[in-house]
Structure formats: C-alpha cells, structure tokens
Task: structure prediction
Amino acid sequence: MSQPDQIANLTPQMVERCFTRSDGTYLFARWGRPIAPIAFGIQDDTLSILKGAIEAICTMVGHQVAETDPELGSNLMFFFFREWAELIAVPDLDKLVPDLAPLVDRLTAADANQYRFFRFDDDGGIKACFVFVRMDDDMGRVPADTLCLSQVVQSFLLWSDQAFTDRSALAKTPQGHVILRPDIAEIIRAAYDPVLPGMARDPSHALRLFARVGQLCQDDRFQ
Result:
C-alpha cells in the first residue's frame, strides 16, 4: 500500500483502536510540557540517533525540546540494559516509578523486553515518560535507527497497550530508509493540534482526531 493510500484508508475506528486499551477503556494523552530527554546505557552514536528522532517528531508536531524540566530535570528518560534487575540499582528510580521492585519482578517473569511508564500533570497531559528497553537477542538484532524511532514514537502519545502489537508504527521507503508510517505520523500531528484537548477519555475524541487528520491533510494539499 502506498503512503497516500495508508492515509486515505484511515478510518475513525482505526484511530479509536490506537487509544482503546485492552480493558476496553479509551484514554488519550499528549505531552503538556516541553520534553527534556536523557538516555542511559547507549553509546554516543546511538544517542545522536535517539536525539535526532525526538527533535524530528517535535518539529513535525510543533512541540518544544528543552534542556531541563523545572520539576524533574529530565522528563523523558530512556534506559537500555541487559537484565530487568539492573533497574533496582538505579539511584532514586524507585521515587520516580512507584512499586519498582514488584514491577521488575512482573517484567522479568513475563520475559518482557520493553516497558513505558507515564506520569501526568493535573490536567491529564503527559509530564514524564520512562522508557525501559531490555537488550535481549531480539532487541539486539534491531538496527539502531529502527529501535530509537520506534521507542520515541511510542513515548509521544499515550497509545493503547495494543496499538502496535500486530503492526509496527514504522515503515520502509523503497530506498530502504526507516520512516514513521504515514498514517501514524498524521495521527500524531493531529493529536498535537491546539484545537484538540491534551487528554481525553471519551471515544468520541477519536472522531475529532480523525477529522483533524483530514483537515490537516487537506490544508497541506493547498499549500
């Protein structure tokens, strides 16, 4: 399917599924403050790729990147490691992620290789995201650009826990370059439009989001 076709075939139901959790509840949230990222456990060349992905999406949606967050210092934290138990030794992480030890036990038992924990402002917008990536054999085979862009995309919105279980948020160009899937890119771009709320629990929000995708695409054609 071509990139324009992916956008043209987008439906309100597809948008709603992106934010409908496995328990059937609808929950959408976007960042409500500038993003101040930091990463641990990766080399400088991969860090540059990660920062580039963050800056690219921020530019796409008109969101700000900051050096520091006044409350947390860094509010988008990436941790790359070999074993979940390593998180227990990270200083003060248990103050940022409640019930860290039981969480580590659950993730270890599930043989998980990634997890994201979000914190929210009083108005429901995202104020922090902690991204944990266990570099098991599967993750170790993923190219750095794919791994970084995938993790960044999943931290920019509060997606459903099922949003990308059967299909990646990424695609490849005919030249082999990894890019954000066009329909997902348009959903993210519309989600950050100021006319839409920063948080929503009613599924009718998906209709507004879908309509905004169409309007932005139409505006692009006339520019």
